[in-house]
Amino acid sequence: MDSELFYNISLLDLLFVAAIALLIAVSGGVLYLSTIEWRDRRRQGRDKKM
Fold this sequence. Notes:
Blueprint: H1 2-7, H2 11-49
């Protein structure tokens, strides 16, 4: 019965899962880069005050 469930996965289901995974990966990357940029700007601001 488990093998029947595995073979019923269609191409659209696989594409949907792949799209969701890519969306999560890209969103995580943007969040990471934004955080790094914010931290660098804050650090540069502190260096200018000294």
